Amino acid sequence: MKRIKSLMVAMLAVMGCMTFVACSSDDDDKKVENNYTVYQKAVNETVKAQKRNNKAILLVAFGSTWQQAYDAFDTTVAAYKSAFPGYDVFLSFSSAICINRAAEGENVASRNFYAPPFWLTAFAQDGVKYNEIVVQSLQVIPGEEYTRVINYIKDFANNSNGDLDDQYLASVTLKLGVPLLQDAVADVNTVATELDKLYKTQASQGVVAFMGHGNPDSYDTYKANVRYTQLEEALQKFSKNYYVGTVDMMENFKTNVLARMQANGIMSGKVFCHPLMSIDGDHGHNDMAGDDDAWDNGFEANEEGEVEDTSWKMYFHHMGYTCDNTTMIEKGLLELPTIRQVWMNHTKDAIQGEPLDYYHSKFPEE
After folding, report:
1. Number of neighbouring beta carbons within 10 Å of residue 89
2. CB atoms within 10 A of CB 39
3. CA–CA dist 327, 333 (Å, integer)
């Protein structure tokens, strides 16, 4: 719940992306090297066993450790296999923390996920060497996590580790599918329209508050946070009862959502809460619908204006609204077929578009 905790988690995830283990001694170095080899071998074997086509789609999600999220990912992979029959489809996690905790069996049975570089390397191995690789971001906004997806492709195409076949890299076709809300007009309006179709009944009964993640202000990559504001504006063309806040965007916390509601004269009534994230994982179950409650005859906001250690459910409840377990809509966006289709449309656009040319950005003379 605490902002400082979320920043520490993000930093650790970035630091651990490739190694999964922090190390300082020679023994630790060997352990990391051995782990890396084990992980790569496991992914290599998976890809070889599942290869059916000469083209592959790699779906890149941040990750989760909740069964509901795993089910959403599995459904998404199945949907992609059905919609793209000429492609082999694989799923990766970009968060080292989620990868480690999933392997440890946090919340649910142990399950192995691997970071994108392992999959891309496996796609280039002898006996596989896909002719076309499409990397599809499952991020909602084109922010920090999406930048990491781009960098995975760049490192792969530029053979950053020096262990891939340069001749193959010069010939393979690379494509990139953009996040859900990449386009400020087309994507935002499409998603707003589909969300209104799904939740107009709830919006006629009270507020529907969508909870996105957001980038901290210090690394609002590509100024992506504005997509939340744009989506709220698009939704409010359908109903003034739609609001979009975040857990980690300056001036768009739950306290700011309340202020906008009250400025519009909404002082009481139901508040339905819904994750605006690809999956309903830790943030949805805890930050949105959890029972954390710092109420002590009032709330004390931190220096950024957010009330820490209190879920959206408990916050709006104490603010005088009907907000309880019955008004929690615990569904991730990948669980909504019409919203998932927007991501799939981005994949189709990527396939039909021009290939990326990161390789020749490094070797322009070729």
Report:
1. 22
2. 18
3. 17
Q: Can you tell me the distance from the alpha carbon of 225 to that of 228, in angstroms, rounded to the nearest whole number?
A: 6
| Percentage of residues in the chain having pLDDT higher than 70 | 89
Residue 108 CB partners (closer than 8 Å, separation 6+)? 65, 66, 67, 70
Q: Which amino acid appears at position 68 of this protein?
A: Q
Q: Considering the entire predicted model, what is its pTM?
A: 0.90
Please give the pLDDT value at position 30: 56
Place of tokens 């907000």: 323
Q: What is the CA radius of gyration of the chain?
A: 21
